[in-house]
Design goal:
Blueprint (H helix, E strand, L loop, with lengths): L3 E5 L2 E6 L3 E3 L4 E5 L1 E2 L7 H6 L10 E4 L5 E3 L4 E5 L1 H4 L4 E5 L4 H7 L1 H5 L13
Antiparallel strand pairs: 1-2, 1-6, 2-5, 3-4, 4-9, 6-7, 8-9
Length: 122
């Protein structure tokens, strides 16, 4: 499973395998493994826990170095002060279908031919 790097500017603040995925809406999430640089932005992440993180311009790089998702589409959810170091996740929203298929092929192919049928009205 590929490991993705999370950056603020040129500073790598951690990694994730983005092991939880929802292909139809282009979302991937996973446990966030902080690097030493995370300490520099953790306060801002915690301060913005109830909303967006505009002052923390996060981006996710795929293993090939290309941007998987950029500013405004990445959020860190950090409950580590209350629950411990294992309670930090990163959420990536709006991954383009081509990129999604490239990095999560088994997830993407499972939804390619899915047809959603609305429920019948009674």
């Amino acid at each position: 499973m590929p490991q993705f790097a999370i950056y603020v500017g040129s500073l790598c603040i951690g990694h994730s395998w983005l092991e939880h995925r929802d292909a139809p809406i282009g979302v991937a999430a996973g446990r966030f493994l902080p690097a030493a640089g995370y300490a520099q932005v953790q306060g801002a992440v915690l301060a913005s826990a109830s909303g967006t993180q505009p002052e923390v311009a996060l981006r996710v790089l795929a293993p090939d170095g290309q941007v998987l998702a950029g500013e405004g589409l990445v959020q860190i959810v950090d409950y580590s002060p209350e629950l411990g170091d294992d309670a930090i996740e990163v959420h990536v929203i709006g991954i383009e279908p081509e990129r999604y298929g490239q990095w999560f092929p088994t997830q993407a192919t499972g939804f390619q031919d899915t047809v959603v049928v609305p429920p019948r009205e009674l």
